[in-house]
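Researcher: Go.
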Amino acid sequence: MEQELMRIGVSLPEKLLSRFDDIISQRGYSSRSEGIRDAIRNYIVHYEWMSDVQGERVGVITLVYSHNQRGLVDSLTDIQHDFGRIVESSLHVHLDHENCLEVIILRGDGQEVKKAAEKMMALKGVKHVKLTTTSMGSEL
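Model: Structure:
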């Protein structure tokens, strides 16, 4: 059964598109479209996996963000305070003049851990977010 293809337009920064083109070339994709379809499939699988975070969890949120984005540092701090009951610790590293790395360790309900990560993901100036979770030690 052949699926109907939909044509879309996407605006991307030149540097991001250039990096994507390099990767799809190295991986042997025949076209950008094929690479984009694969990236979207991976995003969907990751989202569905993240949505299945249940019960007591230990989580690590790793994010890279632009230090120069107006109000972003305050917003990230506010989110950590909003989720203060589950935030155990955080580490801040200056990567270069513009970029910072933040590692936040959380312990609590999996849905709350996920919600904290999603709030951070949605902020303008956040370049990369990864949430990793595991069950609490007694559940292993």
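Model: The longest helix spans residues 32-51.
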